[in-house]
Amino acid sequence: RFLPPLAKQALDTTLKNQGIVKSSNLKNEELACEVSNGVLKIGNTHSPVYVPDTKTKVPDILFFDIQQHVVVLENMLQDWLLGDHLLLVGNQGVGKNKLADRFLYLLSRPREYIQLHRDTTVQSLTIQPVVKDGLIKYDDSPLVVAVKTGRVLVVDEADKAPTHVTCVLKTLVESGEMLLSDGRRIVPKTHLLASTQSPDVIISHPNFRMIVLANRPGFPFLGNDFFGSLGDLFSCHAIDNPSVESEMSLLRSYGPDVPEDIMHRLVGAFGELRDLADQGLIQYPYSTREVVNIVKHLQEFPNDGVASVIRNVVDFDSWSGDAKDVLIRVMHHHGIPAGTSPNNVNLAKK
User: What is the DSSP letter of 202?
Assistant: First the structure.
């Protein structure tokens, strides 16, 4: 899904020549998520619900089931039942965190959360400094806590950290072993020996699992190619913006009182902006997050005009003349009077 244009074209041509055609990911029947008698059912996939040691670590968020996301959740559950670690790759704002948290909520799995950045080091991955009684002490990082307790480690913004840092996760994911920066070693339970009773050895819990979230590599997010470094160790899922039908269903849930016509115009306009971003004509690929924020604002403040609310999202690009012209043209094409001035208002012919 996120290949460079030239490589993607070559792949599509090869597949077409071999008679392999692309089919829709959405199935004809309506899929549903439900938990009944301790069993989670997503579509045609079933899994027993986990009994957590603490419910305070189980994420519970506002989430509306739309068909496209339910299909992704079912695919995630199938890979989960195979014992795989999950990697969700997609643009900013397409719902990777929402999907991960909803997935863990349905399974009732407690999580540990860590967010990476460009200054992340190997040491900060494994220990974290805290201030207690005026003294700096070092506690286990969420990664080590998850390994010890069997919780799910959610690694956010994995592409932002240098690849030589994230590559230390390779042995942990691949074989369950990892050497920490303070000299301790994580080993799987299957390698338990008499010598491993020392305090420098951490036994990996059999229920430990990872869900990694990353933006697609390259422009405009300028992250590192996490998939190229570690992608073969994970079950990968490309998360895209919802289809028109799924996005309309989502917006109706967030803004039940917002006029249907306005939501259609917003979906059409932002869909065109995403196409322009894929073609490299604009820098930022406007995502579902922006449209949802606009609809939530209109739901709460119906007297605010849609043109003024859109400015909350697109005003940053008004500093770039070319980007501003493209945005105004697209909005006007879909009947949204954004950035109107006497210079771009045309009177209708009689």
Answer: E
**How many CB atoms neighbour CB 186 within 10 A?**
21
203: helix, coil or strand? Answer: strand
Helix axes 306-314, 260-278, angle to 10 degrees: 30
Number of H helices, E strands in the chain: 13, 13
Q: How many CA atoms lie within 13 A of 338 on its CB side?
A: 28
Give dist(CA 6, CA 266) in Å, integer.
31
Residue 25 has pLDDT above 60, yes or no: no
Listed residue (94, 66, 59, 29) closest to 270, CA to CA: 94
Written as six digits, the tokens of 162 are: 């240098």
- Given a cut of 50, is residue 350 above it in pLDDT? no
Cβ atoms 73, 45 nearer than 8 A: no
**CB atoms closer than 10 angstroms to residue 129:** 10
Q: In 10 A of CB 140, how many CB atoms? A: 18
pLDDT in tens, 197-236: 677 888 888 899 999 999 887 666 667 778 777 888 899 9
Q: Tell me the per-residue pLDDT of 94-118, one tens digit each, with 9 for 90 and over.
A: 899 999 999 999 999 999 999 998 8
- DSSP track, 5-36: HHHHHHHHHHHHHTT-----SS-SSPP-EEEE
User: Residues 41, 255: contact at Cβ < 8 Å?
Assistant: no
